[in-house]
Amino acid sequence: MNYEDLYQALLPDEKSLKDNIASLQKLQKAVTRETESGDLKNLAKDLSALSAAAAALSSTIENLSASIDSFDTKAYFESGDFASQMLDICKESEVDVQGEFPVYEMFPYRVRLDVENQDIYLDKKRIQCMRPSSFVSTVKAGQERLKKARFNAEAFAEELANAYDLANAKNNRKPGYNMYLTSLYKFLTPMSRFRKDYDLQSFSYDIARLYAEYMNGTTSTRSGRTFTFGPSHNNQKAIRILDANGREQFLATICFY
After folding, report:
1. Could you read off the pLDDT of 182-233 as tens digits, one per residue?
2. Strand partners, 229
3. How much is the pLDDT for 47?
4. Which of 57, 58, 64, 59 is nearest to 10 (CA)?
5. CB-count exposure of residue 1 (10 Å: 0-12, 13-18, 19+)
6. 170-175: long-range contacts at Cβ-Cβ below 8 A with a sequence spacing of 24 or more?
7. What is the pTM (predicted TM-score) of this model?
8. Is 216 exposed, middle or buried, given 0-12, 13-18 or 19+ CB atoms closer than 10 A?
9. Residue 215 and residue 248 in contact, taking contact as beta carbons nearer than 8 Å
10. From residue 37, how far is each of 31, 42, 46, 254 by CA, in Å?
């Protein structure tokens, strides 16, 4: 199954729907003028035309409904056709994808396909969409908006440094300790309601933006403390990001001096 086949089948009736509605609106205005002026001859003629246009509109609506009813949305999701076509379009659109059916990462978004209800979840937002190309366009547009959003690297680094100090104090560690970013995230969002508003995916995206500035020479916080990122041999403890060139990177630790 492919929604694009259904879409092409719907287009003629969609155009007919638009034309019929335009005709009805035109005739309605004529009827209003004729009833006001008392032009009963033309009024009778236009009422007849209005009836024919209404019948044509009703027939078009029935055709559209029949076409939609013939498309088994649950089978489309359950068969994996939707997911397969979505991944193909991601590749064509250069949208990076990781994961397996039904959960994917389209950095920095988490995408989940709800097969039972034929819904898509983009992070926690439910999206009702049966057209893979439309959904991928939504993802790409969101990514572009995030890229254009203002970001103060030094201010964000300062917030990380404060959380880093708090974590070191709690664990009796000295500055210069290489701390896992995932551990730092927990100190940055100590309460579950904070993590609800600022989840790990959002944190990863901010880390990606900080890393981009870091690679361009920003290596200090607002107060002047320096920091460095570090890798890990265990990628399970690392945060996966895409760098400024769209390349996959795994960042595990950060250290403030």
Report:
1. 999 999 998 888 888 898 999 999 999 999 999 998 889 999 999 999 876 7
2. 254
3. 96
4. 64
5. middle
6. 175/256, 175/257
7. 0.83
8. exposed
9. no
10. 10, 11, 14, 81
